[in-house]
């Protein structure tokens, strides 16, 4: 089984997802948004995109990888 992609070129290809903005974001859209795709090759992963460019690329993380990342930056 091939590894899932780590990025997608445009977050617009993720249909039927609910993007959540970081609680640290200001009204200037200067933070990140996350979504959990439920279907397709990204199902079960966490998608992360730049709130300033919602049509731009998204990074994909497993749950464990995201927890390690957030822990490291705290």
Question: Can you give a write-up of this model?
Answer:
It is a single chain. The protein is an alpha+beta fold and 74 residues long. 15% of the residues lie in helices and 23% in strands. The protein has one helix and five strands; from the N terminus they run E-E-E-E-E-H. The chain has one helix spanning 63-73; strands spanning 7-8, 20-21, 32-35, 46-50, 58-61. A five-stranded antiparallel beta sheet has the order 1-5-4-3-2. A hairpin with a 7-residue loop joins strand 4 (46-50) and strand 5. The longest helix has 11 residues, at 63-73. The radius of gyration is 12 Å and the shape is globular. The N and C termini lie far apart (34 Å). The mean pLDDT is 86. Pfam families: DUF397. InterPro entries: DUF397. This is DUF397 domain-containing protein.
Class by helix and strand content? alpha+beta
Q: Characterize the biggest β-sheet.
A: 5 strands, antiparallel
Strand content: 15-25%
Q: State the distance separating the first and last CA atoms.
A: 34 Å
Rg is 12 Å
Give the overall form.
globular
Count of helical segments?
Answer: 1
Strand numbers in spatial order across the main sheet: 1-5-4-3-2
The level of helicity is: 10-25%
Order of helices and strands: EEEEEH
The low-confidence runs, each spanning 5 or more residues with pLDDT under 50, are none
According to DSSP, the number of beta strands is: 5
**Average pLDDT number:** 86
